[in-house]
Amino acid sequence: MESEELRNVGLKVTTPRLKILSFLESAKEKHMTAETIYRKLVDSGEVIGLATVYRALTQFEAAGLITRHHFEGGQTFFELERGPHHDHIVCIRCGRVEEFYDKMIEERQREIAEKLGFTLSDHAMTLYGECSGGCPAAKP
Amino acid sequence: MESEELRNVGLKVTTPRLKILSFLESAKEKHMTAETIYRKLVDSGEVIGLATVYRALTQFEAAGLITRHHFEGGQTFFELERGPHHDHIVCIRCGRVEEFYDKMIEERQREIAEKLGFTLSDHAMTLYGECSGGCPAAKP
DNA sequence: CTTGCACATGAGAATCGTTATCATATATAT
DNA sequence: ATATATATGATAACGATTCTCATGTGCAAG
Ligand SMILES: [Zn+2]
Ligand SMILES: [Zn+2]
Ligand SMILES: [Zn+2]
Ligand SMILES: [Zn+2]
Description:
2 copies of one chain form a homodimer.
Chain A: H1 2-8, H2 15-26, H3 34-43, H4 50-62, E1 66-70, E2 76-80, E3 87-91, E4 97-100, H5 103-115, E5 118-131
Parallel strand pairs in A: 3-5
Antiparallel strand pairs in A: 1-2, 3-4
Helix pairs in contact in A: 3-4
The structure holds zinc ion (4 copies).
The structure holds a DNA duplex.
């Protein structure tokens, strides 16, 4: 239950927070902006404020429930922190986002950080390219 | 000469552009925000507009003279595109930025993109951690 | 089940980084 | 030197995010 999740991370169980959390869980898109999350909730008849969405997302992130990604174009995307860590590849044409995990790269990153005298705590890796084949925005 | 650089990429040689370009070349910091570049120029007595700095940086990037990085916190950093490609590791304490290049990771990225049906055109990889040893912000 | 209170909410104002507008100034080709 | 297309700087406008504050609500104590 989402209520449990909130309680577990020390957040009061409130209606807006539940709405956001369960929306994220049921949404088709895994990666969305705050604005999008807000719009979709409002469009589906919910009464919620944009400020509340931003606040909740920030708290969820601090609590480790969601992750924030800074993709190109300055847009910030959020996604539920479910399952194992992964990185992203984004189509520069249609915006499609695919996920991947590469053990070798992850290990290499740790080695690099160590060699440079850093204690690695996080990383952001996003590849950009054009998705061939199914890219709906591809030129003929 | 910086004038040559501008001409080579098809940009008119203007005083503001020269100021920005030579400042970037002489600056101690390799990675700076637009705001910082503007401030330092103004503080050193130059007469230049913030809009001009943003415009020039955008043009320089399009021309391949500089690179734009989106580090954590939504801040955008620029750096002269000198020497070979590299990625970054940033200290979450003091903000220090170190550069690195790892052939294995670069190759792997290309393979991953290909496997997922993408034509890789770019990537962003930034590691975050705490710089041990010389970190001026480290706790005692 | 009430009740009290700390905390959360929503509407809108405020702020931040960035881009657009526009009248003026300047670089380059003639 | 002159013409013309382009660049500049001040400022307004903008989109994304955060802040403010009056009101509403979760929840624990009684
Ligand atoms: Zn993801
Ligand atoms: Zn695509
Ligand atoms: Zn660099
Ligand atoms: Zn440090």
